[in-house]
């Protein structure tokens, strides 16, 4: 059974991400075969002393989390009856806790609500930044003001310099099959590809590996990558943007605080980090 982990801290942002997930699945013919795990990872404070008072405080916090989780599950059943949703409270650091749960549940996707705009990426919690780059499965981020819309057009921001045998082509294909969407592959470059170059060879690799889903390819001649991608997703009614995060690569460059104005278009868009 495919398993999706939805992270929650019981905020409105987390509730919105849960609603997006349920809306994505509720009309699928095989929805009963998909398991949604609503996961809260409680991080024990670094200054935990291990004495009786501290232990009682942690136990109370865990009890509160279980109650909050129960309320969220009741809400799901009222709004999205028929979906297979369970809840779990785990302890530990967010990244380590998620990796453990992914391994235990054989999860194929993690979904979380973003607490702010993409331009605020650098002020987000360090664990969240790390999981966007380091988890072994895709991570879908849902901005706070984004509601689910049927996915018809999905864009993959493709940096041909970084395409190799580890590029998750099968994941891309599975996403398109599951959503029944059209894939648009975007490559932003200041100059035309040179025959025999690494980029030209990688372009052929992308085409060969994705030919069964017949994507539409777009080469945008522009030096300002963020502005080009933002304009593309708006003009082509893209409902989901796929990126491959790399340290000091597109992910960090795309969401740098210096691009606040250009990111305004992307703040209305779910973005999935592929791994």
UniProtKB/TrEMBL annotation:
Pfam families: Usp
Source superkingdom: Bacteria
InterPro entries registered for this protein in UniProt: UspA (IPR006016)
Domain UspA residues, every copy: 3-119
Protein name as catalogued: UspA domain-containing protein
Native organism: Segetibacter aerophilus
Organism placement in taxonomy: Bacteria, Pseudomonadati, Bacteroidota, Chitinophagia, Chitinophagales
């Amino acid at each position: 059974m495919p398993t999706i982990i939805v992270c929650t801290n019981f905020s409105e942002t987390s509730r919105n991400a849960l609603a997006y997930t349920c809306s994505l699945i509720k009309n699928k013919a095989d929805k009963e075969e998909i398991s949604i795990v609503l996961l809260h990872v409680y991080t024990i404070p670094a200054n935990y002393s291990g004495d009786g008072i501290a232990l009682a405080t942690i136990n109370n916090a865990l009890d509160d989390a279980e109650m909050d989780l129960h309320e969220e599950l009741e809400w799901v059943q009222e709004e999205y009856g028929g979906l297979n949703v369970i809840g779990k409270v785990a302890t530990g650091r967010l990244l380590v806790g998620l990796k453990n749960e992914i391994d235990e549940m054989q999860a194929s996707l993690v979904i979380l609500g973003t607490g702010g705009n993409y331009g605020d990426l650098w002020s987000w919690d360090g664990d969240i930044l790390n999981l966007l780059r380091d988890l072994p499965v895709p991570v879908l981020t849902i901005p706070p003001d984004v509601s689910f819309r049927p996915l018809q057009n999905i864009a993959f921001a493709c940096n041909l310099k970084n395409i190799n045998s580890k590029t998750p082509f099968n994941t891309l294909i599975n996403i398109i099959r599951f959503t029944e969407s059209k894939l648009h592959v975007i490559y932003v470059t200041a100059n035309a590809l040179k025959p025999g170059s690494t980029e030209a060879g990688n372009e052929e690799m992308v085409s060969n590996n994705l030919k069964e889903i017949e994507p539409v390819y777009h080469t945008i001649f522009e030096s300002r990558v963020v502005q080009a991608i933002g304009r593309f997703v708006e003009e082509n009614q893209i409902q989901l943007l796929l990126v491959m995060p790399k340290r000091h690569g597109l992910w960090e460059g795309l969401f740098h605080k210096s691009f606040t104005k250009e990111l305004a278009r992307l703040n209305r868009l779910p973005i999935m980090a592929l791994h």
